[in-house]
């Protein structure tokens, strides 16, 4: 009888879950701790990557056991959700559900002599631009959904600092305003697997840019001109920019020859799973409060309880802010003297999709097994608007 054992080891700031058979490593996955933005909220998210079973050990249930162990480990940790980029029809077994489409803007009609907007210039990134580029990323993603919060010394920024002089392996350009300020950048980021193994393989006729970010329309126009120019110089037919539809880059593309795509998968691609309802609701408080404050109407105070197969959590909705229950839901219900109280029975999958703005809340609600009162649906629409969940390619794991 073979001796099978699963261990969890901390390595390089991440955790590696390994299944060994008679001491030999057979199957593994990585848990990568990250923080993502959901509007102004920041949510601890554990990414799952590097899921692999050695060919001779496949179809024996090993990857499944490794993933189950990883999920137990993550639930015992401090992340609110877990995400991954999945092969089709595999990860739903572990509670993951598609979190949103992949976005892309294709630029056509590329030319070597593409003019830049008057007064703007582009030049190759140098380490002196690092602080400006970081500022651009932070400003551009301050209200985004799915964007990773990057620490100064994180792996992605280290990779950027290695870019100067690395052409053709990699290149990054910055857009400089007429006043001499860096207001955007276009980074090929060819080192990351989602560029090398996905975009460059699936779209060989396009020149792909892993991360194109601008904080002003002028910078966005300048970067699109640069991407077109570089595409023509590299002898490719079109440029591919994987950017979300609510970015200034996607807006700028509307004024040019371009097509924007959203690629959906029923069960694969970018996927999400809730780890703790309570942790998720608590993390979302700042963004939910912002939605209440900016909705332009008076919201009647009420309580919403979310009951899932993972457990439950509650939100106290006030006129100015939304708070999650800090104590047991039963106590919360008893403490709530004013306002309506709604209980929503939904799967953790639907809750994850609501949180990330996967689809209109009323559409998600219409698919619940128990219909909700109209007022509850309109409240959920207010709190959980449609979003464009997107992690830039260098952050993917
Ligand atoms: C995908 C992979 C990790 C599965 O490992 P494994 O140890 O064979 O998986 P399991 O034995 O636990 O499979 C469990 C179930 O998933 C199914 N399954 C296995 N590989 C699958 C795949 N590539 N796609 C869809 N389903 C798959 C199996 O048929 C099995 O179904 P069953 O329980 O109904 O019989 C392994 O094939 C692998 O390493 N592939 C190459 C790397 C890779 O693609 N990793 C995933 C990156 S997101």
Describe this structure in words.
- Helix content is 29%, strand content 31%.
- It is an alpha+beta fold and 397 residues long.
- The protein folds into three domains: 4-98, Aminopeptidase; 104-259, Gcn5-related N-acetyltransferase (GNAT) (Aminopeptidase); 276-383, SCP2 sterol-binding domain (Nonspecific Lipid-transfer Protein, Chain A), CATH 3.30.1050.10.
- Strand 4 (41-53), helix 1 and strand 5 form a beta-alpha-beta unit.
- The model has no long low-confidence stretch (mean pLDDT 95).
- It binds coenzyme A (COA).
Mean pLDDT: 95
The level 1 CATH classification of the largest domain is: Alpha Beta
Q: CATH homologous superfamily of the largest domain?
A: Gcn5-related N-acetyltransferase (GNAT)
Poorly predicted tracts of residues:
none
Number of helices: 11
Number of E-state strands: 20
What is Rg? 23 Å
Distance between the termini: 35 Å
Proportion of residues in extended strands: 25-35%
Write down the overall geometry: globular
CATH fold label of the largest domain: Aminopeptidase
- Helical content class: 25-40%
Regarding quaternary structure, how should these chains be classified?
single chain
CATH architectural grouping of the largest domain: 3-Layer(aba) Sandwich
Q: What structural class results from the helix and strand content? A: alpha+beta
Bound molecules: coenzyme A
Number of domains: 3
Largest sheet: 8 strands, mixed
């Amino acid at each position: 009888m073979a001796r099978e054992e699963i261990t969890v080891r901390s390595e390089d700031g991440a955790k590696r879950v390994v299944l060994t058979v008679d001491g030999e490593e057979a199957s593994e996955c990585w848990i990568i701790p990250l923080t993502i933005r959901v509007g102004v909220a920041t949510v601890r998210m554990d990414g799952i990557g590097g899921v692999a079973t050695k060919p001779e050990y496949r179809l024996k249930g090993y990857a499944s056991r490794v993933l189950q162990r990883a999920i137990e480990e993550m639930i015992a940790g401090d992340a609110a959700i877990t995400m991954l980029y999945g092969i089709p029809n595999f990860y739903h077994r572990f509670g993951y559900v598609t979190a949103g489409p992949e976005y892309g803007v294709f630029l056509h009609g590329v030319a070597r002599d593409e003019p830049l907007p008057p007064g703007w210039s582009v030049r190759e990134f140098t380490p002196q631009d690092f602080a400006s580029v970081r500022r651009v990323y932070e400003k551009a993603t301050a209200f985004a959904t799915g964007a990773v919060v990057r620490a100064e010394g994180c792996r992605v920024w280290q990779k950027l600092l290695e870019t100067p002089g690395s052409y053709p392996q990699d290149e990054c350009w910055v857009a400089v305003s007429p006043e001499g300020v860096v207001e955007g950048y276009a980074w090929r980021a060819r080192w990351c697997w989602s560029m090398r193994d996905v975009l460059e393989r699936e779209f060989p006729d396009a020149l792909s840019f892993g991360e194109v970010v601008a904080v002003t329309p002028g910078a966005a126009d300048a970067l699109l001109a640069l991407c077109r120019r570089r595409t023509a110089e590299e002898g490719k037919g079109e440029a591919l920019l994987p950017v979300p539809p609510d970015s200034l880059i996607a807006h700028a593309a509307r004024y040019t020859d371009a097509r924007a795509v959203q690629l959906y998968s029923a069960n694969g691609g970018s996927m999400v799973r809730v780890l703790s309802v309570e942790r998720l609701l608590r993390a979302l408080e700042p963004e939910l409060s912002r939605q209440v404050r900016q909705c332009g109407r008076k919201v009647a105070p009420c309580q919403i309880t979310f009951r899932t197969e993972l457990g439950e959590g509650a939100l106290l909705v006030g006129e100015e802010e939304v708070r999650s229950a800090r104590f047991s839901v039963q106590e919360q219900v008893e403490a709530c003297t004013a306002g309506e109280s709604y209980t929503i029975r939904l799967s953790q999958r639907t809750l994850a999709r609501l949180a990330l703005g996967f689809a209109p809340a009323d559409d998600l609600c219409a698919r619940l097994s128990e219909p909700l009162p109209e007022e509850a649906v309109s409240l959920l629409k207010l709190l959980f608007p449609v979003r464009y969940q997107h992690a830039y390619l260098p952050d993917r794991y």
